[in-house]
Amino acid sequence: MATLHRTIVRPIMTEATSSAYQDRGEYTFEVAPDANKYSIKTAIETLFGVKVVGVWTSNARGKARRVGQSIGRRPHTKKAIVKLRAGDSIAIFEG
């Protein structure tokens, strides 16, 4: 299992995720492929000092891409949507 800093790979900031955290208080992160919901919850609470109410995860298969004359593949990723209790926020999404 990965450590706290390796569990959370990066935040995902798109138009859809920005409207989700503004409307519902849900934040989206790319996480380690072997991370489970409990380790994601613990990492978010420890790193950002917030209280997590719910965690949803999904696995995305890497897309096949042409690289010259052969077929390559982008890496598989896992993302987590984290819902915080009312009043909590994560500063990296605000600025």
Q: What is the averaged pLDDT score?
A: 89
How large, in whole angstroms, is the Cα Rg?
15 Å
Terminal CA distance reads 31 Å
Protein structure class: alpha+beta
What would the principal axes of the Cα set say about the shape? Answer: globular
The CATH architecture can be given as: 2-Layer Sandwich
Strand content: 35-45%
Overview of the structural elements:
By secondary structure, the protein is an alpha+beta fold. It has one domain (4-86): RRM (RNA recognition motif) domain (Alpha-Beta Plaits). Helix content is 31%, strand content 37%. It has four helices and six strands, in the order αβαβαββββα. The strands form two sheets. Strands 1-2-6-3 form a four-stranded antiparallel beta sheet. Strands 4-5 form a two-stranded antiparallel ribbon. The longest helix is centred in the middle third of the chain and has 12 residues, at 37-48. The radius of gyration is 15 Å and the shape is globular. It starts with a helix and ends with a helix.
